[in-house]
Design brief:
With about 300 residues, this protein is an alpha/beta fold. It is about 25% helix and about 35% strand. It has 6 helices and 17 strands. The strands form 4 sheets. The protein has an 8-stranded mixed β-sheet, sandwiched between helices. It has a 5-stranded mixed β-sheet with strand order 2-3-4-5-6, with no helix packed on it. β5 and β6 form a beta hairpin. It is globular.
Length: about 300
Amino acid sequence: MKIADDWVDYKIIATSDGMKLESWNGVILLRPDPQVIWTGRNLYAEKSINAVYHRSEKGGGAWERRRDFPAEWTVCYRDLKFKIKPMGFKHTGLFPEQAVNWNALSSIISQAKSADGGRQIKVLNLFAYTGAASVACAKAGAAVTHVDAAKGMVERAGENARLSGVDSGIRYIIDDCMKFVEREIRRGNKYDGIIMDPPSYGRGPGGEMWKIERDLFGFVLSCARLLTDKPLFFLINSYTTGLQPAVLKNILTLALKGFEGSFDAYEVGIATEEGIPLPCGASGLFTGEGYGNRRA
């Protein structure tokens, strides 16, 4: 497991009985977490809580405001800044555990620019949500194309980019990711790195259906056609229950067999003040060998 353990503005204070108690730059939230199947303290009794998210038996849920609860605020991670805005399905617009991947991609991009005379590095971020990975890559010096089907999420990504001073380094596309990739293949466009965080299920703006078990491998095969001859990386993140990290590694290994490099798979987690890591998702990462020298 790779653990995000160097946050300052974010921390998990405690976990118990399906819930996690978090501090987001001083705003205390209590939210459900399906990985927390152990019990301990009664987190609902904590007096410092600003808001609690309650699930509904009919699906979804709602926030209960207990103290002053801002509609939105910001948190910082290293030299990055993000807007936090609680939404209807317990989310806040940021997944702090992904800091381990932001760090890895930023390092790869920075090293590649340094080793190759500061050349332009193009990154494609698919199912890109509110753009934390886009911001991290742009901050490292990449030119990022950010694609998501939800207009509201793309607008949030732009806000995050402006907060971090990298808005000019990101191109925003509101589109179905599969259709966008098909068009990019026809256009002959190429990218040095690809990131994707596909949902378990999804629907595009034109009614396009996505099911990860059915569609992921074929989609990665298509995306591989967008890689340059010397790609830097290909990262897949997943929060789909039951989808193991090794599955993502297998997909990348099979889809990118024409490229030399290393393949890694790992759980993504975040440190807690209880001294235990909280597992949060899975990642598979291809890193190009010698910046991805391709076999003849």
